[in-house]
């Protein structure tokens, strides 16, 4: 459905569609038209106009998320468009703002906020070329270093040396862009564009490099920290990190798989876990915690009880939680505040059905997202699941891939899901009866695609018909076989793939070497 545009916005589109005319006219335009023209230029992907608007920006603040978000003149939110043409023009315009000596406006810009951009799977921009978080990190770092080189060549310009602009940004660092980002951060004090990292994601990075760069980004400003996949951060390293660095504003923490492993816990490691819990307790802003694929059996209370602020998001998928862990979660003060919960990889129906029901009833007034993948939910458990979900009237997302449910059970469940008024997104499993009889759950990756695709399509149509007949066209359904879309993984998949191949090769070489010695 087309979004209504005001006459002002239509006029702005008409002007910027003629890039040459728009660029010539900037010097004679009123300041208050710049935000309007910026959004119109972004919508039409007029890179040259975007560049010139930023280069001559007349305000103290430039907030990309707000400029592209819902506005009076055009309500459509464009912040999910990570259009490469637009974003590159925006960043080069920022560099040239510093260098531009003939700007008709005084240089008032003090704060640039680039954090409002959302990376999504489907891009609707004409060029179809995106600039993800990793590429934005790369380009901003490159431009800052270019700017320094340029300033060295123009030492006699005192006006430039007085410019200082805080650039708030979400950084994404891997082995491939580490050197460039590190150099930009090291020279930050000399550059008019000051990189201020408010969210940091690290993947495929040596531990030593991670510790070095995390100190360079100014952790006192950090609100979100994601350490994922190929960063070998174990419990002793996490304790060292929390002991040496203070994160006063940290709101969201994601830890890599196997950070914790209680199967080999000694008294020293028990104390280490308690220390980590206490350090997290000092992070009074922390409300989101993800620690999937760690082994935390019987230790959830020790880790979470020191927290003084209730968690709004908790991901403990595949963490081998036992009855005591679930009982703690259900009875803790976190339960009443959980807006997003991931309990994937736990045999909920067999191990703790009543505790699960209690946990959902406590969080039902606020719960927006629930993920129960590979939880051994079978046909006989569907009624129990419906009873548990019934109070969750604010639920927007429900993911339950990998559960052995028949077509009939899915239809029964979908009939109920129609009654959840806020529900917008459902990820459901391939029905069990679409797979061969000998399939076992959880299904391994090699067997995931071995199902009757024609039968699946037929069942998916029936499920969508149930939604349609209930006037719930607003609910989007899908079966992403290999998990939900992750923009960061998608952007760096080639680098991660190369890393995994090298790791496998090194392992084989060590194994061959050992055999030869024998």
Automatic annotation (TrEMBL):
Keywords: Leucine-rich repeat, Repeat. It comes from the Eukaryota. GO terms for cellular component: cytoplasm. InterPro entries: LRR_dom_sf, LRRC14/PRAME. Transmembrane segments: none annotated. Belongs to the PRAME family. LRRC14 subfamily. This is Leucine-rich repeat-containing protein 14B. The gene is Lrrc14b.
């Amino acid at each position: 459905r087309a979004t209504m545009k005001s006459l002002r916005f239509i006029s702005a589109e008409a002007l910027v569609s003629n890039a040459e005319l728009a660029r010539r006219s900037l010097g004679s335009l009123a300041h208050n038209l710049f935000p309007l023209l910026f959004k119109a230029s972004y919508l039409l992907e007029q890179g040259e106009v975007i560049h010139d608007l930023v280069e001559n920006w007349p305000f103290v603040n430039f907030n990309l998320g707000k400029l592209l978000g819902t506005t009076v003149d055009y309500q459509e939110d464009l912040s999910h468009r990570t259009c490469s043409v637009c974003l590159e023009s925006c960043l080069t315009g920022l560099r040239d703002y510093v260098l531009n000596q003939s700007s008709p406006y005084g240089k008032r810009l003090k704060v640039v906020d680039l954090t409002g951009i959302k990376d999504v799977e489907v891009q609707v921009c004409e060029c179809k070329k995106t600039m993800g978080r990793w590429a934005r990190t790369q380009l901003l770092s490159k431009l800052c270093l270019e700017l320094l080189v340029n300033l060295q060549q123009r030492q006699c310009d005192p006006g430039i040396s007085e410019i200082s602009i805080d650039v708030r940004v979400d950084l994404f660092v891997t082995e491939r862009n580490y050197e460039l980002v590190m150099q930009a951060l090291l020279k930050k004090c000399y550059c008019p564009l000051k990189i201020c990292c408010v969210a940091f994601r690290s993947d495929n990075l040596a531990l030593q490099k991670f510790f070095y760069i995390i100190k360079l980004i100014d952790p006192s400003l950090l609100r979100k920290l994601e350490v994922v996949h190929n960063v070998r951060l174990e419990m002793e390293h996490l304790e060292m990190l929390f002991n040496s660095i203070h994160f006063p504003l940290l709101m969201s923490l994601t830890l890599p798989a196997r950070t914790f492993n209680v199967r080999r816990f000694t008294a020293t490691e028990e104390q280490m876990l308690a220390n980590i819990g206490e350090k997290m307790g000092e992070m009074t802003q922390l409300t989101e915690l993800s620690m999937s694929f760690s082994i935390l059996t019987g230790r959830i209370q020790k880790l979470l009880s020191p927290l003084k602020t209730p968690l709004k998001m908790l991901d403990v998928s595949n963490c081998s939680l036992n009855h005591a862990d679930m009982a703690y979660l259900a009875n803790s003060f976190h339960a009443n505040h959980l807006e997003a919960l991931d309990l994937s990889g736990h045999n909920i129906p067999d191990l703790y059905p009543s505790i699960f029901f209690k946990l959902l009833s406590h969080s039902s007034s606020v719960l927006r997202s629930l993920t129960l993948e590979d939880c051994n939910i079978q046909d006989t458990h569907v009624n129990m699941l419906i009873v548990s979900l019934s109070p969750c009237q604010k639920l927007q997302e429900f993911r339950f891939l990998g559960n052995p449910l028949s077509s009939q059970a899915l239809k029964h469940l979908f009939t109920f899901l129609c009654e959840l008024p806020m529900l917008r997104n459902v990820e459901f499993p391939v029905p069990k009866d679409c797979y061969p009889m000998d399939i076992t759950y959880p299904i391994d990756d090699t067997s995931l695609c071995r199902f009757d695709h024609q039968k699946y399509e037929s069942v998916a149509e029936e499920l969508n018909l149930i939604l349609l007949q209930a006037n719930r066209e607003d609910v989007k359904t899908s079966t992403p076989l290999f998990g939900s879309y992750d923009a960061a993984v998608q952007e760096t998949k080639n680098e991660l793939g190369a890393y995994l191949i090298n790791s496998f090769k090194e392992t084989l070489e060590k194994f061959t070497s050992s055999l030869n010695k024998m």
